[in-house]
Amino acid sequence: MDRSDYTIRNATEDDVYAIQGIMHSAFAGYLEDIKNDYKLHALTETTDDILEDIKNHAVFVAVTNEGRVIGSIRIKKLTDDLAYIYRFGVRSDIKNIGVGSNLLATACDYCIANGFKAVALHTNTRFYTLARYYYGKRFFVHSTTTDKGYIRALFIKELTGSRDYDISPAFKE
């Protein structure tokens, strides 16, 4: 699949079921990849939860020219300077062809356009390929925690070169 085969746009109510399917598939695969059975909120969220995110936060989807949603990413404002990326996933049958990278770039562009100095996200430290992926996208590990029952790394990407931002609101995510 080539970049001309899909577009990235704001999610709508019509995308809720597709987003839910992608999240369930992506996060179930995530658990399989790290050989664990943690209770992830992404696997229990309802369509109402997703709709609430679409209404209150930035949610982008990658959509094929035929109209099939193939990936999504969510961004929420934590402070005037800090955004948080969550529920980021791509259909398992099209991974590693750039869709996720384009969704992440769109999210970072959105954050820059909205004046954020940094963006944060969490991921499992045992998912080595994902940790390497974020390093490759210029994120760095700020800290780790076990508050969700596994070792999570808080990754940060500075968007403006300024280090004048408070990261502490991301600890609660």
Please describe the topology of this protein.
Layout: E1 6-10, H1 16-33, H2 47-56, E2 58-64, E3 69-77, E4 82-90, H3 99-113, E5 118-124, H4 128-136, E6 140-145, E7 152-158
Parallel strand pairs: 4-5
Antiparallel strand pairs: 1-2, 2-3, 3-4, 5-7, 6-7
Helix pairs in contact: 1-2
Give short descriptive properties of this protein.
173 residues, alpha+beta, Aminopeptidase, seven-stranded mixed beta sheet, 4 helices, 7 strands, globular
The low-confidence parts are none
Radius of gyration: 15 Å
Major pleated sheet: 7 strands, mixed
The number of helical runs is 4
Strand content: 25-35%
The H-and-E topology, N to C, reads as EHHEEEHEHEE
Quickly give the structural class: alpha+beta
